[in-house]
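Task: sequence design from structure.
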């Protein structure tokens, strides 16, 4: 039968009013269904043909309502103050770093010649040297870890000719996350990401330069950055089986079923509602996006980035580890400030929780009191 716009609005409001929050999400499904079928809208009571003008008006009203509901839903579930896990940085800061990197800067040799007494560091000398006993090299290493956000003379930088693809890759992967949502993005595989790029114009097809750049980051020898941890995921195309994961309510994150899920539930039961999951499973795609963002924030300093974010393929989040934090503490949960909270003290007192990167660890990674070791 033919219906006018007022009937459509009434039916959509009935769906929202009767089902609350799920109603908002249902409206979104109506819009998607209708757009795919062009002139038919399935409201659960049969197919109702609409005139094109009515559809366009409904689309604008319905989409706005659905997106508002989606925002409310996510706002209740995820701490909106955290743009990137393991980073005390915002989207605005990353954008500012892109502007800085696009401006002309002195070359690395010029910089070192001007600000160090030893002059430029040869490429062959760009490596971390650790002493077997306490000596200058060990003290230097520990000082570097404690000042992980500073640049150091042996740090390795991304070549300037790679800056453009660094920015475009960061933005395109970010559009994928915007399209599919934060939670789904955490477990997204590389091949699946490429398919999304080809399918949705709002993302756009990944260029060969971008895919080569991602593959290069994944296959790079992280020890050249100064990161000394193991590579725990060997294939860029590795996927995470959905059947082996569980989404943790009110967090937007997933954990692997089994050891990870049981450990989290146990520590949460023992500590109470003031502690929460701040980062769970991270696929190669998610870790790559985080590492690229940190590289941009570090203005191309790959070594500096790797002191805070494990390079792609080296994150234990991909095989079981997870992060916890204090409810309402925001991005401070990813700083040393977390170690001063009652939640962290209780975590230590439990006796059965180990931290992946303790203070003064020898893996080239800063102190991460929030990172729970599972594997």
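Answer:
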């Amino acid at each position: 039968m033919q219906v006018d716009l007022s009937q459509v609005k009434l039916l959509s409001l009935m769906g929202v009013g009767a089902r609350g929050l799920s109603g908002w999400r249902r409206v979104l499904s109506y819009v998607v269904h209708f757009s795919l079928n062009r002139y038919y809208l399935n409201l659960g009571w049969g197919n109702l043909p609409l005139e094109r003008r009515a559809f366009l008006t409904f689309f604008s009203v319905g989409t706005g309502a659905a997106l508002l509901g989606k925002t409310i839903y996510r706002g209740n579930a995820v701490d909106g103050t955290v743009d990137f896990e393991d980073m005390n940085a915002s989207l605005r800061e990353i954008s500012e770093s892109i502007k800085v990197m696009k401006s002309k800067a002195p070359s690395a040799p010029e910089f070192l010649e001007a600000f160090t007494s030893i002059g430029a560091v040869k490429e062959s000398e760009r490596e971390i040297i650790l002493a077997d006993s306490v000596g200058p090299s060990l003290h230097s290493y520990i000082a570097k870890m404690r000042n992980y956000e500073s640049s150091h003379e042996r740090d390795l930088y991304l070549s300037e000719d790679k800056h453009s693809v660094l920015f475009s890759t960061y933005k395109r992967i970010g559009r994928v996350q915007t399209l599919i949502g934060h939670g789904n993005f955490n477990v997204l595989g590389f091949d699946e990401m490429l398919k999304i790029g080809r399918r949705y114009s709002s993302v756009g097809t990944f260029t060969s330069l971008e895919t080569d750049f991602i593959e290069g980051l994944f296959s790079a020898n992280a020890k050249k950055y100064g990161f000394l941890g193991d590579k725990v995921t060997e294939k860029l195309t590795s996927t995470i089986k959905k059947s082996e994961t569980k989404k943790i309510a009110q967090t937007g994150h997933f954990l692997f079923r089994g050891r990870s899920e049981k450990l989290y539930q146990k520590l949460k039961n023992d500590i109470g509602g003031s502690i929460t999951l701040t980062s769970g499973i991270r696929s190669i795609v998610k870790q790559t996006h985080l590492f690229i963002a940190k590289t941009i924030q570090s203005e191309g300093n790959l070594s500096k980035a790797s002191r805070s974010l494990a390079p792609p393929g080296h994150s234990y989040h991909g095989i079981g580890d997870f992060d916890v934090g204090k409810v309402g503490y925001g991005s401070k949960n990813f700083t040393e400030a977390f170690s001063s909270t009652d939640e962290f003290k209780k975590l230590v007192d439990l006796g059965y929780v180990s931290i992946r990167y303790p203070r003064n660890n020898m893996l080239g990674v800063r102190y991460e009191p929030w990172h729970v070791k599972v594997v």
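The longest helix spans residues 52-77.
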